[in-house]
Amino acid sequence: MKVNAFLKKINWMTLLIPVISVVLGLVCGAVIMFAIGYNPLLAYQSIIESIFLQPYYGGETIRAMIPLVLAGLAVAFAFRTGLFNIGVEGQLMVGWFASVACAIIFGHLPKFILLPMSVVAGGAAGALWGFIPGLLKARFKVHEVISTIMMNYIALYTTAYLIKNFLYTEGERTPTIPQAASLSSAFLANLTQGSRLHWGFVVAIIAVTAMWFMLWKTTKGYELRAVGFSPDASEYAGMNVGGNIILSLTISGIFAGLAGAMEGLGTYQYMTINSAFTGIGFNGIAVALLGLNTPVGVTLAGALFAGLQTGGMTMQSNAGVPVELIQIIIALIIFFVGSGYVIKWAADRLKRKGHKS
Amino acid sequence: MSFFEVLTIIIPSTLLTAAPLIFTSLGGVFSERSGVVNIGLEGLMQVGAFTAAIATLGLEHAGVGSASPWIAILLAAVAGGIFSLIHAVVSISFRADQTVSGVALNFLALGLTIFLVKMIYDGKGQTPYIGHNIDKINIPGLSQIPFFGPIFFQQVTYTSYLAILVSFLVWFVIFKTAFGLRLRSVGEHPAAADTLGINVSKMRYIGVTLSGVFGGIGGAVYLVTITSNYNVSTIAGQGFLALAALVFGKWHPIGAMGASLFFGFAQALSITSQQIPYLDQLPSVIMLTAPYVLTLIVLTGFVGRAEAPKADGVPYIKGQR
Amino acid sequence: MSYAIEMRHIRKEFPGIVANDNITLQVEEGEIHALFGENGAGKSTLMNVLFGLYQPDQGEIYVHGKKAVINDPNEATRLGIGMVHQHFMLIDKFTVAENIILGREPRKHGILDLAKAVKLVKELSEKYGLDVDPNKKVEDITVGMQQRVEILKTLYRGSDIIIFDEPTAVLTPIEIQELIVIMKRLVKEGKSIILITHKLKEIFEACDRCTVIRRGRNIDTVAISETNPSDLASMMVGRKVNVQINDAPYEPKERILEIDHLNVLDSRKVNVIKDLNLTVHGGEILGIAGVDGNGQTELIEAIAGLRKVRDGSIKIGGRDVTNQKTRKIIEAGLGYIPEDRQKHGLVLDFSVGENMVLQTYYKKPYAQAGILKNKVITKKAKQLIEEFDVRTPNEKTLARSLSGGNQQKVIVAREVDRSPQLLIAAQPTRGLDIGAIEFIHGKLLEEKKKGKAVLLVSFELDEILHLSDRIAVIYEGHIIDIVNPKETDENELGLLMAGRRKGGA
């Protein structure tokens, strides 16, 4: 009964676009493989088999999901309030750096203090990196797309500089963080036959729930959504538009910073000097779009992309297809989701034709 | 080291790093003046650089010799133009969010080029080095001028001066021709242009395609003058830097050129500062981040308001006005 | 003889509505022909069909007696049809000359010949007496001059049939008179004109004949010399208009809104409100009459805390709210029905229910400790939908999908339900059909009877005259006079709106 009511509430048309986009993306990927002379069925089969049947790849998929979902939430949260945060990449980097730096500098503290403190440090650094473009937008009307891109590069060069000069160790990276700050778990690793799965997934689940609760259950969320849809009407209704813009990008930055902290404290336990971006932040844009900017959608889209990326490794070894194909497929999916207007239009046409005949 | 010697290091280095930025940001000017935001400049440069590498290697193999990189630049222009059509179709005809489309374009470019590199070179992630670069030379005649010669005309590439020349050409096209007037009109007020019989979609397609052509050239120039081979990190941020130059230059061709030269100067300083007295004290991070920080400052309006074309980023839907 | 324009049996359907249903329009050579009807009657659709922006589903168009298929504005232009759009189609950053020649640029060796463009524009403007400065940027010229640029655009393209789409909405009374002179001169030069309007006065001053359309159908075409305003009006509406009259006794109570020596800057830093004084009492409707652009918008925005007050003070219910935050002012007792209901009044992508609590969502009983109480909000929304007769499937429907009249009802319901001491209604009935207008007028009068203060701002003089207890005329940012609606008429108000005081210039 309840399920039925829930199913009725879903707007099938809106769900159609991401589903069709994914299918089209995979089909295009298959066509490319076929055209070049690979076996697309073997390639997809190896992806599916590895992530569902081999615990190691299953664990790695969930591991890869953690930062992807958090980055997706960051983008989606900003989208919900009408802002396009391309700066997740940079916020993630400063979050990564801050969490690792905190863990190393305060390495003598006990775990129950150091671990939460390092996680918070990552979130806080991301928040700062989101706050600045928020302030620039609210105060000087600087478009956030441009300012967050600039902030990305500032983050890239600044973290590299800080590591090189203050936390440097052999291998172009920081030292490994102390155990007391680590999210890694022998239990989870054993469970998944040695994958790097760590406790960060708890943080991701909390973040997913927090975003849902904040946006739809609180007055602040109501305000953020109102400002996102219509800054003018919100201002006329007495809301502080500038304040909400700053808040939105700051919270978005927290999610992104946490994504970085998960990599720093969980997956890698250190940070390397990056000469290029991690790509997680940009993937977050795809995750958010495909997930229709809803917490559940972001989780599902994050799972899909994490699976594709992890399974892409076995695809390369089993079917010989370069792993870059996955990136091509993800790019195509973004194009298709973005072109939702055409998909809707085509679906409408089909529907009407169906009625006529 | 004397100040003169410092200049003979920094100025040629500036010209070298600025040239790809100039070409690419000019591409951005065309696209954004027509009303289409192009975050995909990075990807267009990647396609250009990739094409230039493959084409130069192929032409060298065919025995074309030192003309190879020049022909490769032209081929890269074509490739960039074709690749940018994806952005045009998705954001103009399909009305997708232009930023989303641009992000996807970058994804696709990097994935596709590396995928193809692996296809062509048996799974290796990078191309071989090209045999014929466009070399730094002393320009005959001009380099003999006392004082100015060594600073501006020794150890430079022709592409740098070509880029500056082309900037003025683009300025002329955009501000002095009927085509330019029409291009700007669809970026400012597409509905008005439409009622006067100007085909908004066509103008925007042209704008985006030109951004592809120029982005392709930018990437190609970067490859044949600076890196000489293509791999995953060949174009790492150059396109976004060009985007910054476009904004810093206030969407004006000459402004974009000036900003590109300035950003090139900052990059040149960050590379050469170790050899230069006083500057070697300065952390290189300041030079590296300067272009981005300064662009942010310009956008805040402290240095005169930077205003984008009015309809930049807004899809045009007939009948909605 | 053949007509300049003949549109026969035009039908145009949009999903869900028939905008034009078998409309026939015949415009004679050399006349000014009015196309008269309410908002939403189908006038604009018909003209967009003529200008090639829409394709008719049925019907034929003849231009100078020859059958024409008009696929796009280019074709319309080629046939000599030009349009002066209601919302000017001008590019702010281009000069006047650039705007006029765009799309048909004079060239020399393939290069834009701007000197020639300026010369051509000067010649045209002299020939037709349309004073413009070709070298100025559009953003720097007056609205009246912008309209002349629009007219010149059509003349430059050699149009001999010119459509004017509601051209007087943005003009001062003097500019309107000038426009009528221009139109008459154009006709003398051999042009034919179609004037789209819903204002009777203009029709009787300028036009030769008039076609009346109502709900997508044409009612009649009459010669102006053989009809009178009241006949035309009832033709437009289709019945005797049930005018809501302010018949409750005028018993002003305590001062609710007190504005003292107010000075406000507009976005260009020009002083648009100059030393303005105004008082509105409880139990009265004070109407503000004035031509658009004389500071009405800025005045309301200053009261609502949306625009900075430079000097002077504003009190609501005795409380000084000058330069307070909007939320503080709303809490002090301000209700506001904004001019642009879709942009400022509603969050279109919120549900009707969410829109009902746009100013109160954070307060009890709708929220507690920062957590929304969605059940209470839903209950309230259902109650208001019922009470204010909002036609919507349910409270979860997006505000965007409601009709204009129902959107306005949502806003009125929300504002009135909060029971504010002061209710500002800015153009509350613009673009609505008669039924919705009557409903909203009724609600404003109810508020008066409840003893609230109502500040009504409208460009429709009829609305002001019928509803107000006192009329304040605003001109160039100050109140030039306050008159009693029972002792004044449109003529006197018109003169005041143009800045001429009684008995003096």
UniProtKB/TrEMBL annotation, chain B:
It is found in: Cell membrane. The keyword Secreted does not apply. The chain crosses the membrane at residues 6-29, 36-58, 70-90, 102-121, 158-175, 205-224, 282-303. This is ABC transporter permease. The lineage of its organism: Bacteria, Bacillati, Bacillota, Bacilli, Bacillales. Keywords: Cell membrane, Membrane, Transmembrane, Transmembrane helix. It comes from Sporolactobacillus mangiferae. It is a multi-pass membrane protein. It comes from the Bacteria.
TrEMBL record, chain C:
The keyword DNA-binding does not apply. GO terms for molecular function: ATP binding. Residues 5-240, 257-501 form the ABC transporter domain. This is ABC transporter ATP-binding protein. It holds the Pfam family ABC_tran. The keyword ATP-binding applies. It comes from Sporolactobacillus mangiferae. PROSITE patterns: ABC_TRANSPORTER_1 (PS00211), ABC_TRANSPORTER_2 (PS50893). Keywords: ATP-binding, Nucleotide-binding. PANTHER family: CARBOHYDRATE TRANSPORT ATP-BINDING PROTEIN MG119-RELATED, GUANOSINE IMPORT ATP-BINDING PROTEIN NUPO.
